[in-house]
Specification:
Blueprint (H helix, E strand, L loop, with lengths): L7 H6 L1 H42 L5 H58 L2 H6 L2 H43 L1 H8 L1 H39 L1 H6 L3 H53 L5 H42 L19 E9 L6 E10 L4 E6 L5 H8 L7 E6 L2 E2 L5 H7 E4 L10 H5 L8 H10 L3 H6 L17 H13 L5 E5 L7 H14 L4 E5 L3 H4 L4 E6 L2 E6 L1 H6 L3 H13 L1
Bound molecules: adenosine-5'-triphosphate (ATP).
Subcellular location: Cell membrane
Membrane topology: Multi-pass membrane protein
Keywords: ATP-binding, Membrane, Nucleotide-binding, Transmembrane, Transmembrane helix
């Protein structure tokens, strides 16, 4: 239960609302209890009137007497209606304070979790799948909200109505109170157990629902593959299987639910019977008036919901504690990469790797092995190499998405780890190898990192990225929606969109990670030429598998298994009979 203590700071923040809620709850309870006494008076009045009626029947006051009787009964009736109305109004205020408080905390909590998620390193995202991250920010937070809203509200209500009602009952008749309340703890305990069964079954349903949604999501995003391999029938039958399982689990829950209400009604009925039976004996002995029986039946009805809620609230609190535990697991993870300073830093563009080794924390793979190289501001570095040789890892390290396991990376002679992280990242733009576009317009995708980008700047960026001609042919131009992950664009168009995004705002260091691979050599040459103008005086790092992307660079390094095996300019490397030369020969042959 200690997990829920994390939420106390939020409860304190909205303490005023909660206190108001408690006051409204007390008032609404008073208006709920008071009618029972009015009923007793009315009941006793009816009994008395029935007794005296026969005596007065012959008297001259009889009509007046009956008239007065009806007026008093009417008054009692009016009082009951008025109190029910006031009770309703205050219950409205209770919900407006306590339930609204829970919604506000839910909002704060979701924002805090999202903000924290964003600070966590990439290795965290490799270890945890998206479904799990989503579940904690949505379903788990919803369960926690059930504790903050309904559970807190009904617990307060329970305490107030127990104290007020039971003390009133005891002050009237102890024996009758004992018998009337006897079945209620049983009700509470059975509801707790039934609720637990319901929760377990609901969880199974939830799991099946998420299996079903994952399946549907995959089926639709992979629809091209499904159609191309004519697997629609198999896909449908798999869906039917999961849907059947979902239906079975729902039916099981429905069975438990249908047991739940009869059980509740049985125990409440038992309470009423006991009240009438023991109350009757007490009336016979002259200990109470008959009106008390009616009053007690009303009290029992009033206590039914708080007693029921006791079992319900207990299981809500248990579930909320389990959910908060899962949320805390993530909230307690410290971001591995943090900015050590707030001091502003302006990048010139010198990049130096000093004996850098990187072992990926999650896979244990040594991606870079004592790597050293440097590139001066304003120059272009091309990185070539076999697959898995560590090229993208260099890009990840320059943007400080990971920190080296050994060695240092220097930007303008300063250790990257000691610089203002926000300033560094905002001056380094990267077009990553795994292209990611948001399902938004092309314009918004390109202007992603520069909110104030003008249309002119965006158009210039698309021209330099060799994308403008394509955009002009599109019906909606820059306002074309690219679909989920850019599904409506070709591979090359997607790559060029990310290049436009990266060069917009002319970064101090530009990293293109295999961003020209799906582009024909003619367009590639045009883009590389444009880059020379756009990136004049700025540092560019071009990662590629193709010699054509590298040949214009001031310096080329060739990687293999995390190490540099060759380095120099295009002409220098052609003089060595090595990997670069053989790549050059192969690629020139295939392009002829
Ligand atoms: N985020 C990561 N977590 C764990 N291991 C990784 C991660 N990224 C890459 N690796 C591993 O590190 C090694 C180097 O990968 P990297 O992506 O840097 O190679 P690359 O030269 O860019 O390859 P390619 O040319 O195929 O893109 C590979 O063995 C890869 O499996």
């Amino acid at each position: 239960m200690k997990e829920l203590a994390y939420l106390n700071k939020y409860i304190l923040k909205y303490g005023f609302r909660l206190s108001l809620g408690v006051i409204f709850m007390i008032i609404s309870n008073i208006f709920a209890i008071a009618p029972a006494q009015v009923v007793r008076y009315a009941f006793d009045l009816v009994v008395d009137t029935l007794k005296t009626q026969t005596i007065l029947q012959e008297s001259a006051f009889y009509d007046q007497y009956i008239n007065d009787f009806f007026q008093v009964v009417l008054l009692y009736g009016g009082l009951i209606v008025l109190m029910a109305f006031l009770r309703g109004i205050f219950l409205f205020f209770v919900r407006q304070t306590i339930i609204v408080m829970s919604r506000l905390i839910e909002f704060d909590l979701k924002n805090d979790i999202f903000e924290h998620y964003q600070k966590l390193s990439l290795s965290f995202y490799r270890k945890n799948n998206t479904g799990d991250l989503m579940a904690r920010i949505s379903e788990d937070v919803s369960k926690v909200r059930m504790y903050l809203g309904p559970a807190i509200m009904y617990s307060i209500n329970m305490v107030i109505s127990f104290v007020l009602t039971i003390s009133l009952m005891l002050s009237i008749n102890v024996k009758l109170t004992f018998w009337a309340l006897l079945p209620l703890p049983l009700l509470s305990i059975s509801i707790y157990f039934v609720n637990n069964i319901i929760n377990k079954k609901s969880e199974l349903i939830q799991q099946q629902l998420s299996t079903m949604s994952t399946f549907v999501q995959e089926a639709f995003s992979g629809i091209r593959v499904i159609k191309a391999f004519v697997r629609e029938k198999e896909s449908l039958s798999q869906f039917t299987d999961t849907a059947n399982e979902y239906q079975d689990r729902q039916l099981e829950l429905a069975k438990v639910n249908s047991l739940f209400y009869p059980l509740m009604l049985f125990l409440i009925g038992l309470s009423t019977i006991l009240t009438v039976y023991v109350g009757g004996i007490e009336v016979g002995e002259g200990a109470i008036t008959p009106g008390v029986i009616a009053e007690f039946i009303m009290y029992v009805t009033l206590l039914t919901w708080p007693v029921t809620s006791l079992g319900w609230v207990t299981s809500i609190v248990q579930r909320a504690a389990a959910s908060q535990k899962r949320i805390n697991e993530f909230l307690n993870i410290e971001p591995e990469i943090i900015s050590p300073t707030e001091e502003p830093f302006e990048i010139k563009g010198d990049v130096k790797f000093e004996n850098v080794t990187l072992v990926y924390p999650d896979s244990g793979i040594k991606a870079l092995d004592h790597l050293s190289f440097e590139i001066n501001a304003g120059k272009t570095l091309a990185i070539l190499g076999t697959t898995g040789s560590g090229k993208s890892t260099i890009a990840n390290l320059i943007a400080r998405l990971y920190d080296p396991t050994e060695g240092r990376i220097l930007i303008d002679g300063h250790d990257l780890k000691k610089l203002n992280l926000h300033d560094v990242r905002s001056q380094i733009n990267m077009a990553p190898q795994d292209v990611f576009l948001f399902s938004n317009t092309l314009k918004n995708n390109i202007a992603f990192a520069k909110d104030d980008a003008t249309d002119e700047e965006i158009i210039t960026a698309t021209k330099n990225a060799g994308l403008w001609e394509n955009i002009q042919q599109m019906e909606y131009g820059l306002d074309t929606i690219v679909g989920e992950r850019g599904i409506t664009l070709s591979g090359g168009q997607k790559q060029r969109t990310t290049i436009a995004r990266a060069i917009l705002g002319t970064p101090k260091i530009l990293v293109l990670d295999d961003s020209l691979s799906a582009i024909d050599t003619k367009t590639e040459n045009a883009i590389l030429n444009n880059l020379q103008t756009v990136m004049k005086g700025r540092t560019s790092i071009i990662i590629s598998h193709r010699v054509s992307s590298a040949k214009l660079a001031d310096k080329i390094i060739v990687m293999h298994e995390g190490k540099i095996i060759e380095q120099g300019s295009h002409n220098e490397l052609l003089t060595i009979e090595g990997h670069y030369k053989s790549l050059f020969d192969q690629q020139s042959k295939s392009s002829n």
